[in-house]
Write a structure and sequence with these properties.
CATH superfamily: P-loop containing nucleotide triphosphate hydrolases
Number of domains: 1
Number of helices: 7
Strand content: 25-35%
Order of helices and strands: EEEHEEHEHHHEHEHEE
Number of strands: 10
CATH architecture: 3-Layer(aba) Sandwich
Bound molecules: adenosine-5'-diphosphate, magnesium ion
Length: 239
């Protein structure tokens, strides 16, 4: 027997099913998804509106629970974790980026990025330094004292990316992070996610229906009607 223990994939899902009750009908958002995502991978989840992308990312991120099937994060079955453990997993191991940015309007850029570290009890001097470094890494070193309403859409999303990465998560889940951006900013935000993921060794899962981004992804999982219609690896794609 070899002594080597194979590292668990960052995400593994089996038979994932999730329906929503709408009136007296069940809308099936996911209908049996199996998927494995390894350490440091960049994966684009593609598919038309309503195909189940957001539902999948919410389940991967322990923001929602499936009706059937299992979600393993770093080998741990989410169904075996209590609410407190799920909260800690989201807070310490994962980072989230959403289409609508979700920045706190009364906080400036630095305070927004610092916020996850405040919750985690990181001492002030250290968290200021880490938040400033994260903002530098997204090209916003000069905008740290700006509140979100003084930043452009692309800049706001870059603040959200800095916030998602500041606690050095194992994986970042970005749900249509470029949905509110023009194509130039969309590309910049995507490439930034890809580059920072590489730099931090973080797994990055990005949902989008933008063909420009899909074309740049080394792996594309395409959903259709809540199923994986295609899972394509393209090592030659340079993000
Ligand atoms: N909270 C909800 N209540 C009812 N139906 C929902 C809800 N969220 C998603 N759905 C439905 O589930 C399906 C998949 O949605 P979603 O995961 O948001 O897809 P996508 O992100 O690819 O647009 C769609 O038919 C959508 O209308
Ligand atoms: Mg969606």
């Amino acid at each position: 027997m070899s002594g080597a223990v194979r590292e668990a994939p960052v995400f593994r899902v089996e038979g994932l099913t999730r329906s929503y009750r709408v009136g007296d009908a069940d809308v099936r958002a996911l209908a049996g998804v199996d998927l494995e995502i390894g350490s440091g991978e960049l994966v684009v989840v593609a598919g038309p509106s309503g195909s189940g992308k957001s539902t999948l990312l919410h389940l991967l991120g322990a923001l929602d629970a499936p009706d059937a099937g299992r979600v393993f994060v770093e080998g741990r079955d989410l169904a075996t974790l209590g609410e407190r453990q799920r909260t800690l997993l989201r807070r310490r191991r994962l980072g989230f980026v959403f289409q609508a940015f979700h920045l706190v309007p009364v906080l400036d850029a630095l305070e927004n990025v610092e916020y996850p570290l405040v919750i985690d009890g990181v001492p002030r001097a250290e968290r200021r330094a880490r938040a400033a470094a994260a903002l530098d890494s997204v090209g916003l070193g000069e905008r740290m004292s700006h509140r979100p309403d003084r930043l452009s859409g692309g800049e706001r999303q870059r603040v959200a990316i800095a916030r998602a990465l500041v606690h050095r998560p194992r994986a970042v889940l970005a749900d249509e992070p470029t949905g509110n951006l023009d194509s130039g900013n969309a590309l910049r935000v995507f490439e930034l996610l890809a580059a920072l993921g590489r730099e931090h060794g973080a797994t990055v899962v990005v949902s989008t229906h933008d063909p420009e981004l899909v074309a740049r992804a080394p792996r594309v999982v395409t959903l259709r009607d809540g199923r994986v219609a295609r899972d394509e690896r393209r090592p030659e794609a340079v993000s």
